[in-house]
Description:
Elements: H1 3-22, H2 31-55, E1 58-65, H3 71-79, E2 87-90, H4 97-101, H5 106-109, E3 117-122, H6 131-135, H7 140-159, E4 162-170, H8 173-185, H9 195-198, H10 204-218, E5 225-229, H11 233-247, E6 265-267, H12 271-274
Parallel strand pairs: 1-3, 1-4, 2-3, 4-5
Antiparallel strand pairs: 5-6
Amino acid sequence: MGKKDHRKSEKSKNSEAQCAAAAPEDDSISVQDYEAQLHLLQIELVKLQRHFIECGDKILVVIEGRDAAGKDGSIKRIVEHLSPRETRVVALGAPSDRDRSAWFFQRYVAHLPTAQEFVLFNRSWYNRAGVEKVMGFCTKAQHAQFMQSVGPFEEMLVNSGIKLLKYYLDISKSEQKRRLEDRRRDPLKQWKIGAIDAVAIKHWKAYSSARDEMLLHTHTASVPWHIVRADNKRLARLNLIRDILLRLDYAGKNHGLLKPDRDIVFEFSADCFADQRLAR
């Protein structure tokens, strides 16, 4: 091994060690094992993309969750090796004055997938059921109207041929606090810090209540919610990808790889509250 390659190898090892030190919650799976499993799942994602391009499928995955739940990191691993021409990540900012005066779903409709496209929403219209409700960015009447109309809206998407999957990444209060503090210390994560982050812990109970109401009223047989227990980032990412691949049809599927841990990712039901499967 040349000096240059040796330096790269040492740098990679140091980076892995730093990651492990910064994420004690991930000790249950080693970096090497995680990366090996992720590589195989990303190959499956490439197979999926080849299939939906050939078949003209339209795939939409909605990723929701509290601040610092791991949405960005999960989406990054999903799209990392996919063609950017047929893959889009949608992460909309605050609505403009024009957006506020339009039909609520209007600005999201413009980003829906067309044939041969795979679109992931990093937060979605469910902002109205979470952040907007908790922070007072919408009225009670607007929130009630959303809860009544989101079901029929999603039914229209499914009936139009869009394959719609919804995931909620759930983390504990202690883990959210740790990650938010890590953001403040890490100069490479400064872009993630916003005014909403600053009060996330303060409004923990309000966000829990809003989450529970959202899941109960917007979980349907045709467009169900799936919960991802995300305190362990590595296991959450692997099992999220497994579940997505399991629910979509594509040629050459390696079924042996696609066995999600149902303690980590599972379909929502009202029993989740009594069983304490959601962070309180």
